[in-house]
Specification:
Elements: E1 4-16, E2 22-30, E3 33-39, H1 41-44, E4 48-55, H2 63-71, E5 77-84, E6 96-97, E7 107-113, E8 118-120, H3 122-126, E9 164-166, E10 170-182, E11 187-191, E12 201-206
């Protein structure tokens, strides 16, 4: 089986562990995914599997997308990603991968795109305190203050924290503990939060660095 699969963030909830403690959890609709293509080391230079998630209406798919899906005997997909293959495993195009692939897996890495916050100031983006709200300070209390340098080096240093685009970047939360698996409803419950908004697409992989959180 592949070392990961695609899913969609359903939302956050809480569950009780065996000691009665409340544990924050995220529910993910993991799959079902369809094998769209299998990459071979001899032919493609590396071994991987291409998974597709959620059908796309045919009239919204391009001709190359339709042809690619036709080879796998499937419908065009909204999301297609590649995942590494477990050594010795063999998959066929058109084969379905379900959340049952995570049976026995205790830790996973979840990758998603964080919520976009638009163009944000330094207080929100970097946690600046802002200027003093006292006499002598004009009405720009949330500004970052001076960024200039004196005669040496007489320039603004690269990487200076300023206002700018916040969010909408790819992030990975590592070593999230698997709390529950519901194969009937294709649900995977993990401990903690995962990147992205409710309804956002995420990639779930077996944890690379095994460290329980």
């Amino acid at each position: 089986m592949p070392k990961g699969m695609l899913g969609r963030k359903v939302g956050m909830t809480q569950v009780f562990d065996e000691t009665g403690q409340v544990v924050p959890a995220t529910v993910i609709q993991a799959g079902p995914c369809v094998v769209m293509q299998v990459k071979d080391a001899d032919r493609d230079g590396y071994a991987a599997v291409q998974l597709g998630f959620e059908d796309k209406a045919r009239h919204r798919a391009t001709q190359p997308e339709r042809g690619h899906a036709r080879k796998a005997g499937a419908e065009p997909k909204r999301v297609i990603r590649e995942f590494d293959l477990v050594a010795g495993e063999a998959l066929e195009p058109g084969q379905e991968i379900t959340v049952g692939a995570f049976d026995g897996v205790t830790l996973v890495d979840v990758t998603g795109v964080t919520k976009g916050r638009g163009f944000s100031g330094v207080v929100r983006r970097h946690g600046f305190h802002g200027l003093r709200a006292s006499h002598g300070v004009e009405r720009k209390h949330r500004s970052g203050g001076s960024i200039g340098m004196s005669a040496t080096p007489s320039r603004v240093i690269k990487g200076t924290k300023m206002a700018g685009q916040l969010g909408h970047v790819r992030r990975t939360e590592r070593n999230l503990r698997v709390l529950q698996i519901d194969p009937e409803n294709h649900l995977l419950v993990v401990k903690g939060a995962v990147p992205g908004p409710v309804g956002g697409c995420v990639e779930i992989r077996q944890a690379v660095y095994q460290r329980v959180r």
